[in-house]
Records
---
Amino acid sequence: MEAKNQLFDHVAQLLDEVKAYAINDAASLEQFRIRFLGSKNILKDVFAGIKDVPNERKKEFGQQVNAVKQLAEQRFSELEAQFKQKETDNGADVDVTRPSQTKPAGARHPVTLVKDELMQIFIRLNYTVVDGPEIEDDWHNFSALGMPEDHPARDMQDTFYVSTEPPVLLRTHTSNVQIRVMDALRKSGKQPPVRIVALGRTYRNETISARAHCTFNQIELLYIDEGVTFADMKQTLLYLAQELYGEKTTIRLRPSYFPFTEPSAEMDVSCFVCGGNGCAICKHSGWVEIGGCGMVDPVVLENCGIDSEKYTGFAFGFGLERIAILKYKINDIRLFTENDLRFLKQFEHL
């Protein structure tokens, strides 16, 4: 029994020691911390003696040891704050009325710069800017665009699926906005014209490299009305190219394939760096590929309740990162998503 009482007496002595411990500077405060709160503090050895305490007094013993620890923590916190304040008071005078150091203003992202420029171009052409969901169902992203489940064109776009039953996915292009706009037109009982431009983020399960990324931004244009022709599309694309890269820019259209346009074409612009003479940007061809375009496939119009015998239209889509890469001579698409201030700071005056 005497040994048990000695344990309780030792705890009481430690409590008195915590109260009376002389702490005059940061060094003595650190010694206090090591003794009572450090990784090998004395209280750990004391608490290990609980095995020798009768069961009916274990709770009491634990509470007394905990009281010593709590008092030590309280003294340490209070004195630490006092010493820090004293160091501040003894330091150089602080002018509290002096304005704080301001952080440098941010800059718009190069993709945002390109997006804003494109929006202004198409607003001047009387197009309406629209948006749509990034998480999309299969109908709006694929099937309504002429790509049923077994269509080989689906293999052109490696897709991130959110769920498979029913199919829900991250949109692979902004063409889903076209379908939603035409669906809304049908539900309202209205008919074309449709003049829209959609901008937004898209996703494809691709290997990330200097020239490809799993997420990127697209701009997509759709114009549907009576008597719309391929020549209308070509003139619109020429106007766009000259607004972006200068009035001397020319374009060419090469036959291609897209499941939702017929006929389809790839659009190239004359190299705005070398003027068509050949350089590293255009791979010495004199031309730079921008994006795809074509006349809206009648199947797509019919899927959205638009009379393909009466109405025709064209659509084209470009990657905003690709336009920014060409416009600002950027050599790695990964720079757009790394948020490196050294890269972004180059665009603060644009």
---
Amino acid sequence: MTRSTRQREQQAAETEESKEDVRECPECGSEDLVKSSDRGELVCNECGLVLEEEKIDPGPEWRAFNHQERQEKSRVGAPTTQTMHDKGLTTTIDWKDKDAYGRSISSKKRSQMHRLRKWQERIRTKDAGERNLQFALSEIDRMASALGVPRSVREVASVIYRRALKEDLIRGRSIEGVATSALYASCRKEGIPRSLEEISEVSRVERKEIGRTYRYISQELGLEMKPVDPKKYVPRFSSELELSEEVQSKANEIIETTAEKGLLSGKSPTGYAAAAIYAASLLCNEKKTQREVADVAQVTEVTIRNRYQEQIEAMGIHH
């Protein structure tokens, strides 16, 4: 190594050290330094002095001020997603028979595009495993839409189903049953309360099979599921019954107080929440019948009566 080369390397190292040593603003002495990701600069938050510039900017070279401009200028597609069997990395041939300028294409080109579109659909799934996955993920998407759960639940359900497929847990079970169980597990994982009855209403399999398959895959995949908190059902049930905030807070108070005394152990969370809402509606003079509450919570009136009696006794209320 020549002397000049060594000097250059030494100077570069000193420059890097001096950059790393910048911990306060030389202008105002403030230590509140902010790295600007959009412009690649180190800026003092107090006086606005630019301490470092010309850093590598990982963002695009264009700027957009609203969603429409961002969509027009972006040269990439949507991010990858677990909810599609190919993670969204497939090629899509548009059904519109028009060119890039919006002009209609010739009949020869139309027939060619029709053939390409047909073969594209055929080669998207190369084997039975991918066809299985494609059908299961479309089922999860359909049921999640019917239940009105957020996008994160669909992503988690898709990951659980992919793990079950990889571990060969699908063998001997229906695709719909495993897909529904994965969705139920993801609802519990994400803290979005949906009962087995609600899940079975939008599914094509029976409640008993969903419960059996759910227990099997959660055990085999080691999914650690915490018991569902009945308080998570209170806002939705109260909203459907058109009850006030006062009733909701009273129902939550009843659940908290009685759960501390050990009444919740071994009880269905939906039935427990429904009974607390019924008791709270009576206490707040917004009476709802047991039948109305039972229909919303999808439990029996007997369950509500039993839980209600236990709860008011534990609260020391004589109604």
---
Amino acid sequence: MVLTDSIGFMVQGLMINQFRVGLIINPVAGLGGSVALKGSDGMTAQALALGAVPMAQPRAAAALAELLAQKNQFNVLTVAGEMGADVCETLGLNYQVCYTPATFPTTANDTEQAAQAIAGQGVDILLFAGGDGTARNLCAALGERTTVLGIPAGCKIHSGVYAISPQAAGKLVQRLINGELVTLQDAAVMDIDEIAFREGVVKAKRYGEMRIPAELRYVQSVKAAGKESEELVLDDLAAYVVSQLEDNVRYVMGSGSTVAAVMAELGLTNTLLGVDVVENGQLLASDVTAAQLLELVSGYPSKLVITLIGGQGHVFGRGNQQLSPAVITAIGCHNIMLLATKTKLQQLNGRPLLADTGDAALDKALHGLLNVLTGYNDYVIYRLGYEDEE
């Protein structure tokens, strides 16, 4: 139902101001992830040609689905079509279109103009689905004037303005609608040079700050930059992993410097920011897409060697969308070898590891206490996911 001027609802004859949620979806966010393009900026046509499936709308829907029980308590101010209205219509939410793009596919300029139009109507919080580029657009358009919260849908998410998952974004807005006290704070908007990123070089830059609801269990940290400095620990860890590799098993080697140390121990060329496949000490495939990876592991004994993102704790769903739910399921949750130095775990300050695969059932299956390899035959037990989410 489209509402053009209704901004309140009646309770026992009294007019109550309705909670106002802004919504902007970047329809092409994250397209490059599953097809190993390591970003979506300027890559939409190529990503779609490689078989990428848009995920921003389903992820926005997953966040808003958390609010369906309260649908009569809030109104959504959004953008026409695939930038918001389509999802609201599907979910049966009360919504108002504040901006209509002139052409499709939409552009960064549409995101900025939509943000200004929605903020100009007055919202309690502006939800947006995208990645770091989308956050940059909103920061340029709004600065710190409007409280925002990102629904993670991009390939690379270094910024601290995003929830840890779409469901977490919905749960946090739910608390706001319920009138619970939530602290506000300014969080950094970060982005990287995607051209350099595709060459294996991370050049992150701070573009400003935006105001977010600050609930640590729902909002992710800024990604910790830099390579591991504990070279001896990484050498020991890598040596132990190599000693445990089995013959005729396909090892999917995830991204990041910790797994890169294992590849260096094997003497193999590594895709630092991509996913490689190793079998019997040889490089079977390099920088694979999700579709290629699924074909490589289906029907073969396979294991996954992966690390976590420093500072954030994400194991899946940030920079490694090649590890799709179908791939993880084909490999098997029991065949995942998680690597991290103790310093990397300490950076989390007790927060749990996180999985945001895009499949809620798989995320739940991954939850629990995990053995994390932190050195040569040295394991610690660490939780993935919050206890009340299991």
